[in-house]
Amino acid sequence: MGMQLWRNLSDSKDIEENIKTSAKENLCLYELKQHKPWFNRECLCFLDERKQAKMQQLQDPGENNVDNLNNVRCEDSRHFRNRKKENLKAKIDELETNSTLKNIREYYRGINNFKKVYLPRTNIQDEKGDLVRDSHSILARRRNHFS
Questions:
Q1: Looking at the domain assignment, is residue 21 inside a domain?
Q2: What does DSSP say about strands 124-125 and 131-132: parallel, antiparallel, or unpaired?
């Protein structure tokens, strides 16, 4: 039966898709969540272009290739920055519409998502090199450090 399945599939994309779907079903594989919703296929093309420019610069470290790499990096950074701004504006517009439509639950969920963007971690080590995690030990360590 397996040989008939392979013979019936003529296109390599069909084979690839069948392997992926069977792996997902049988091995419980899943796709990773995308943590950057602003990152799309266009950004992926920019990233590939940057990698190619970097490879050219590594193979031939001439001044022309270095300038090309710097220009590509500037364009990519500008594009990524603009995509992030557009995504942020869309989130803010969504919050505004939830506020005007009196959709309070979604409004506060959006606000909480903004608040949880950055959570600082304190990785303070004591004299032994162990991580200090509780607040009293952290304060004592800081007191000793600054006195």
A1: yes
A2: antiparallel
Whole-angstrom CA distances from 45 to 39, 52, 68 are: 11, 11, 16
Looking at residue 53, what is its pLDDT? 93
- Angle (CA) 45-48-52 rounded to 5° is 140
The single residue listed with the structure tokens 């450090």 is 145
pLDDT tens digit string along 63-98? 999 999 999 999 999 999 999 999 989 988 999 998
**Residue listed under structure tokens 């590509």:** 72
- Rounded distance between C-alpha atoms, residue 21 and residue 38, angstroms: 26
Q: HSE-up of 143 (CA within 13 Å, CB side)?
A: 6
Q: Is residue 66 part of a domain?
A: no
Enumerate residues 6+ apart whose C-beta is below 8 A from 142.
124
Residue 145 to residue 125: CA distance in whole angstroms: 11
Q: What percent of the chain clears pLDDT 70, i.e. is strictly above it?
A: 76
Q: Which pLDDT belongs to residue 70? A: 94
Query: Largest alpha-carbon pair distance within the chain?
Result: 78
Name the domain count of the chain. 2
Task: For residue 129, give its domain range.
Answer: 122-147
